[in-house]
Design goal:
The complex is a heterodimer of chains A (80) and B (193). Chain A is an all-alpha fold and 80 residues long. Helix content of chain A is 81%, strand content 0%. Chain A has one domain (2-79). Chain B has a single domain (19-191), classed as Four Helix Bundle (Hemerythrin (Met), subunit A). The chains are: A mainly alpha (80), B mainly alpha (193).
Chain lengths: 80, 193
Amino acid sequence: MQKTLTYTYALLLVLTLTGALLSSFSISKTIVLAIVAFSIAKFLTVAFQFMELKNAHSFWKVLIVLYGCLIGGVFITMLY
Amino acid sequence: MDSVSTQQKSIFYPPGGILIWIVIYVELLTFGMAIAALAYYGSQERVLFHQHSQLLNKTIAAINTVFLLTGGYFAARAVYYFKAGLYAKTNRFFGWAIISGLAFLVLKIVEYHQKLEAGLTMNYSSFFMNYWLLTAFHWLHVLVGVVILFFIRRGIQQKKEKASLDDIEAGTAFWHMCDLIWLLLFPILYLLF
């Protein structure tokens, strides 16, 4: 459990730094997609691992995944 | 352990209890609508939003993201230690989570000071109106989260094993919610325009 939390934290840091570095390049469609994908991946990782939604009923899992997909979809639709 | 697992798998018992998750989803919905509006305005005024987002300090925002993620990690570890009955470690990790939250709050104030010095107030543009409203509202949430963690930590110091796991998980869930909201605000305000 401790190791899982630490690996999750390391993954979140890598995704954050990668997203920030990508944004320093001129923004293209691919970069927008990558940054949005990283952000939603981080969002869901925090929800499932740190907030322990992985142990919750499927209803709560589906709800948070739907929300993440909806926000990601809004980002991409508006900015792509 | 089986009864705990069964309880957590029930739709009425998400980690921390159903009430905090209703609060979390209401907050996510509220911020989600504001973020969608920001993305819509950004799509209408692409050049202005691009130019004005370049006036923000991405380095400070990235460091702040690390602070919040670190705070979330420490809080998750603290809950793990509480479940294991290791109260001293629980308190230590909650303490570090509080310090991470305070670091976020202070660095955000530094960023706000820079913006005010440069005259980038709420009236400067529609981008900055959204920036101030969203980030200030989030800042208040982080402040509340720090206060909640402080009281959780004090409760564990005073009562130890009598402290309620549900209360601790609920308070920690609120803290993680601040992470969730920031993880959406960070890309839309600082990276994507």
